[in-house]
Design goal:
The protein is an alpha/beta fold. The protein is 36% helix and 25% strand. The two termini are 25 Å apart.
Length: 158
């Protein structure tokens, strides 16, 4: 696991600006952390870094379950908080969306990692202290984590 301290909103935006160029079509990012830890804030910052205009609202898909966005990379933002079974997750078709080249960022997806394809980046946000723990599963996840850390190192040297 790699830990990145995020004491300010600016630091979370900086992480998003490292993550955005590291993403590729079909990538999976599973976001976890307690309520108020900044999962949706991070997704919004990633979308802004991917060129989504400020006038396009980015909110939590808690009740709609899935929001789709067209930025430099087609991105799906899902929230599985209210779902109870793997079958409910399968019915959302997130795996098909990945196969079609959409990048998928999922809040509360840890219990359903295998249903989501398993191969991806795990990003766990904590509140006290504010930080992100990064891990990866599978070939695609390891590659994404490597690109993310490379972008973070490059941003830090500027």
């Amino acid at each position: 696991m790699t830990r990145i301290e995020l004491p300010t909103r600016r630091d979370t935006k900086r992480l998003a600006r490292c993550l955005a160029p590291a993403l590729r079509p079909g990538d999976l990012v599973i976001l976890s952390g307690p309520l108020g830890s900044g999962k949706t804030f991070l997704v919004r910052a990633v979308l802004r870094a991917l060129g989504l205009p400020e006038q396009v609202s980015v909110t939590s898909p808690t009740f709609t379950l899935v929001h789709e966005y067209e930025a430099r990379l087609p991105l799906v933002h899902a929230d599985l908080y209210r779902l109870k079974t793997a079958r409910e997750v399968q019915q959302l078709g997130l795996d098909s969306m990945r196969d079609e080249g959409r990048t998928v960022l999922v809040e509360w997806g840890d219990p359903y990692a295998e249903v989501l394809g398993g191969d991806g980046l795990r990003l766990s946000l904590s509140v006290e202290p504010r930080a992100a723990e990064l891990g990866a599963r599978g070939r695609l996840g390891v590659a994404l984590l490597g690109r993310l850390l490379e972008h973070c190192r490059a941003a830090g040297s500027r």
